Amino acid sequence: MQEQAFIALSLPTPIVDVYVAAPGPIHGPFTNPNAHAVAEVVAAICTFALGRPVNLPPTVWLAQDEMLADLESRKTETSILTFARKGKPLEIFHLAFLDRHSWDHVRGAVLSYDAALRQQREQVAVILCVAADCLTNPFQPWKAERLTTRLHQFLQRVDAGSPR
Questions:
Q1: DSSP 8-state class, residue 22
Q2: Dihedral pair phi/psi, residue 147, rounded to 5°
Q3: Are the C-beta atoms of residues 61 and 35 closer than 8 Å to each other?
Q4: Which stretches within 91-140 are classed as H helix?
Q5: Cα 149 to the chain's mean position, in Å?
Q6: What's this model's pTM, rounded to 2 decimal places?
Q7: Residue 11 — very low, low, confident or very high, per pLDDT cuts 50/70/90?
Q8: Which of 48, 67, 99, 138 is the most exposed place for a label (fewest CB within 10 A)?
Q9: Once rounded to an integer, what is the mean pLDDT over residues 156-160?
Q10: Calculated CA dihedral for residues 147, 150, 152, 154, nearest 10 degrees
């Protein structure tokens, strides 16, 4: 246990610069929440990639005008790598456009994992990890029917006085 504490203390603080292209004409009440929502998912992906929590800054700032041309050219630069963990790419943002249902599940899974690593109580962390695992299972229509039936039967047993 002491060896693990020493290792945790010797790790450098991760610093990740993220630039989000948020839709909207100006920095304001529409673009700022959108940018922060993307930054939250990016922080959770970084947490998953590094295996330890990555904190968001308290605010999201507008990029300076002189940076925009450089940022635009970097979007297509092949030398900039995507997020990865153990050689597996963690680039999930394309799902937001291609398959909204899958995006919601993957987003929920990485946010659940991020929350699990931050927990002080191991029981809560286990519940969040189970939730993350459940969210990564592909959707099958028959699953919903079976789950609904099981839940309905369970609730009927609880109402009858016997949860088992």
A1: -
A2: -65, -45
A3: no
A4: 95-98, 100-118, 122-135
A5: 30
A6: 0.68
A7: confident
A8: 138
A9: 72
A10: -140
Distance separating alpha carbons of residues 122 and 127, to the nearest angstrom: 9
What does the block give as tokens for 152? 């309905």
Which run of H or E residues covers position 36? helix 31-50
Looking at every residue in the chain, the average pLDDT score rounds to 77
User: Strand pairing of 88-89 and 84-85?
Assistant: antiparallel
Q: Are 103 and 95 in contact (CB under 8 A)?
A: yes
Nearest-angstrom CA–CA distance, 71 and 49:
23
Q: Counting Cβ atoms within 10 Å, is residue 81 exposed (0-12), middle (13-18) or buried (19+)?
A: exposed
Helix pair 100-118, 122-135: axis angle to 10 deg: 160
pLDDT confidence of residue 18: 81
